[in-house]
Amino acid sequence: MFNTMKRTVRQTSARTLADLIRAMDGKRAVTITYIGGDGEESVRTIEIHDIRTTSKGRIIVRAMCRMRGEMRTFHPAQIVAYTIHRMRFVLDTPASETRFTHAAETEAELISLELDRDYPDLKPLVLAA
């Protein structure tokens, strides 16, 4: 998986998304070949911090761009190729950047979120780690 250029046209969008999620979870840098809004192709190395769905159902990738040094939004459909690196994140995320509110960092948080979703009238549970 690491350091191999993958062409998105040769695989399903689910496969591309799964690879990007793995890179995010492993805090691995990803170099992407991306078609910008102006139609120009550019190469960027990014550090993915969040992958979410907008209210209109579009998947977006929120990532720190090493070239710009700031948080940017990328659309997976506009990524034409990518490479996942072994190198870890090196940029600090801006304090103003908020993660998706339902993201769980630990198993206990995930279980708590699931219980809260299914049983919203229950008092919050504190689970031991």
Features of the shown structure:
6-stranded antiparallel β-sheet
Describe the structure.
With 129 residues, this protein is an alpha+beta fold. The chain contains two helices and six strands; from the N terminus they run βαβββββα. The two termini are 31 Å apart.
Q: Biggest sheet: strands side by side, in what order?
A: 1-6-2-3-4-5
Unreliable sequence segments: none
Tell me, rounded to a whole number, the average pLDDT.
81
Radius of gyration: 17 Å
Q: Largest sheet, described in full?
A: 6 strands, antiparallel
Q: Helix coverage percent of residues?
A: 10-25%
Percent of residues in beta strands? 25-35%
SS content category: alpha+beta
Order of helices and strands: EHEEEEEH
Number of strands: 6
Q: Helix count, per DSSP?
A: 2
Instruction: State the shape.
Output: globular
Question: How far apart, in Å, are the first and last alpha carbons?
Answer: 31 Å
User: What oligomeric arrangement do these chains adopt?
Assistant: single chain
In short:
This protein is an alpha+beta fold.
Question: Which helices and strands appear, and what pairs or packs with what?
Answer:
Elements: E1 6-7, H1 13-25, E2 28-35, E3 41-53, E4 59-65, E5 70-74, E6 79-88, H2 107-118
Antiparallel strand pairs: 1-6, 2-3, 2-6, 3-4, 4-5
